Amino acid sequence: MTSQNPDQDSDQIKLIEQTKKREHSNNASVLIVDDTIYNVQLLSLMLIKQGYQVKQATNGLEALDKVNEHLPDIILLDIRMPDINGYEVCMRLKANPKTKDIPIIFISSVEEPSEKVEAFSVGGVDYISKPFQLIEVLARIETHLRLCSLQKKLQEQNEQLQLSSEVLSRSLNQERELSQMKTDFISVVSHEFRTPLTTIQTASELLEHYEWTKEEKIDQLHQIQAEVKHMTALMEDVLFLSRTNSNKSKINFTNFDLLMFCSQLLRQMLRSFGQSYTLQSSLTIASDSSEVISIENYHLCSDLPTLMVRMDEKLLRQILTNLITNAIKYSLQDKTIEIDLAIDREQATFVVRDRGIGIPEEDLENLFNPFYRGKNVSTLPGSGLGLSIVKNCTNIHHGSISVKSQLNSGTEFIVILPIYGDRIARDD
Fold first, then answer.
1. Is 31 exposed, middle or buried (0-12, 13-18, 19+ CB in 10 A)?
2. pLDDT in tens, 52-89
3. pLDDT of 347-394, one tens digit each?
4. Do the beta carbons of residue 307 and residue 425 sit within 8 Å?
5. In sequence order, which residues have a C-beta less than 8 Å from that of residue 105 and are 6 or more positions away?
């Protein structure tokens, strides 16, 4: 059944067109679901004249298929239909995350209050009784499209506010972290610089006011040079960390022989730390032909295969130097430091393992924060910058780092770095 006075409806619709500018888009789509063909045709004609895109369905299953093909902006849904009724159609649409927000207006000849209550309980936004007035149908559609549009705008604004809140929260956290970092920097640097400056001042005063033999003067000068070297290294670490934290450090790829690089670095560190520690190295190369090459203590070998890689040599040096230095620093003398290297086609895995004092479990979470030092290393010298530099270098190189540790048993750091470009591995 339809309107009781079509001419009156037509006049009212024209009046709405003249006095009211619709807020919805002219391309808004409406799905009409009714098993009475006349109702579908009449509603379609009216809505098409108002600029709507109209889809039609004469039963519930067809309606569900039409919704899956193209999501309408609003649905006019009859209750009494063959196959499945309008309530079931509505419940299925509301259960689907993709269709749950489509407003559904029920149109039915059923006048029972319980039926209307059921229509709203299953998710309908409105209920129009047959015989309907065309002007009423149009007004209800207009109203719910506007409400839907306002709800979407409100949701978008809420999402923007949420995003702005998250950005503000991150900014505040970064500001607090920066402030704390500045405080830590002043504390650490003042402490780290005070001792060498005092040593330099004392040595220079002694050189000025006392008579020294040539050998004694050289010893004093060497002490001054060592303290200056320590201060310079600390300042370079601070500057490097500052550049990486401010994203000013960029990856700089070069082609170099990874095995020669690692071998030379390990031999250099052996010379620097003397014979107090033992370095053990192992090498595993998985070749393209599934052949595995294994070499023990490769840093002592003179006939290593050539293994060209494309990586950032400077970042790699920072990573390995800091990890090996820490392994030596936090191990007792005469202990063994193990450096394992595994290569496959896509990545290089570096493992630095010591048998030192270990890291307390509660310190692991903050281990890579600048200036952070474990609770069990307070008597040992250090600035707390080394592992933060390692972490930043690893991130810049798009790699990963993990740590395993047990108190008084040792610590193991695992760094995985991608190998870019083609690598060449061949025996000499």
1. buried
2. 999 999 999 999 999 999 999 999 999 988 889 999 99
3. 999 999 998 888 888 888 888 887 777 777 766 666 677 888 889 889
4. yes
5. 74, 75, 76, 77, 124, 125, 126, 127, 128, 140, 141, 144
